[in-house]
Amino acid sequence: MTIATSTQSRLEWPVVLFMVVVHSGALLALFPSNFSWPAIGLMIFLHWVTGGVGITMGWHRLVTHRSFQTPKWLEYLLVFCGTLACQSGPIEWIGLHRHHHVYSDQEPDHHNSRRGFWWSHMGWMLYELPTKPEIVRRHTKDIGNDPVYQFFGNYFLPIQIALAAVLYLIGGWPFVVWGVFVRLVLVYHCTWFVNSATHKFGYRAHESDDRSTNCWWVALLTYGEGWHNNHHAYQYSARHGLKWWEIDFTWIMIRSLQAVGLARKVRLAEGK
Questions:
Q1: Residues with Cβ < 8 Å from 148, sequence gap 6 or more?
Q2: 3-class state of residue 211 by DSSP
Q3: Which one of 134, 182, 193, 207 has the minimum C-beta count within 10 Å?
């Protein structure tokens, strides 16, 4: 199968406009009236909850790769945290990511890094992908009919608006600007660096039939996801930082859950 290129498909205007709105909203942080240390602290905390706990540990390592197991209530909680990152619904995100691993850096890969840094970073999502429903359906048979996952997929944008309303009631516009707009932009680009920077910068420790690399600064920004070559070599491993100096904060979180009995059947790279 092939993925339509930007010259063959049309712009996905709802996505384009949404990205313009979110990035423009983040610029409101430049106004002194929106500066607030509590708001910045809130942003950092929500960055961890949504990008680290939700996307990295929940959507990616737990559900996409089933690197470990948790009680169902905890799985749903982690998926909810990922939903707050507003990166589409969990079924679509997980389906596309599984598809990426099957065709990494080949023509069918929707963010094929061979098409350039911009394309793999965010350009790919600005264009229509006619085969997306088929791709997602084929790669999410385990979660596609789950009503909780479906709910988060259908209502991830209203959920974000509800979060903004709660933050406004607590701390006014500074909490909305930093806790929603700035936080979303930072989590977006940190996540996208895994698609772009870790297929261009860094070193390769394993032969993985693609261009994946280990990039230390992406690992710091994404709670350990930057050890991407390790991940592509051992996709099932809950631990991505395989050397003692490859800091992997998400692995520390998983180990903490394991220590209190909330993570089991934790899968690791052979011999690591």
A1: 76, 79
A2: coil
A3: 207
**Cα 245 to Cα 73: distance, rounded to the nearest angstrom:** 33
What string of DSSP letters covers 171-240? HHHHHHIIIIIIHHHHHHHHHHHHHTGGGTSSB--S--SS---B-HHHHHHTTTTTBHHHHHHSTT-S--
Distance (Å, whole) CA 183 – CA 15: 18
Q: How far apart are CA 136 and CA 131, in angstroms?
A: 9
Residues 6+ apart with CB under 8 A from 139: 94, 95, 96, 98, 99, 102
The candidate with the shortest Cα–Cα distance to 95, out of 126, 129, 121, 48, is: 129
Residue whose pair of structure tokens reads 């264009």 in the numeric block:
127
Q: What pLDDT score does 209 carry?
A: 83
Query: At residue 72, does pLDDT exceed 70?
Result: yes
Give CA 204 to chain center in angstroms: 22
Question: Locate tokens 């994404």: which residue?
Answer: 222
Q: Record the tokens describing residue 79, joined without a space.
A: 């998926």
Contacts of 103 (CB under 8 A, 6+ apart): 109
**Residue 270 binned pLDDT confidence (cut-offs 50, 70, 90):** confident
Dihedral, CA of residue 135, residue 234, residue 212 and residue 80, to nearest 10: 50
Cβ partners under 8 Å of residue 17, min gap 6: none
CB-CB neighbours of 43 under 10 Å = 24
Rounded distance, CA 227 to CA 137, Å? 28
What's the pLDDT tens digit per position in 13-39?
999 999 999 999 999 999 999 999 999
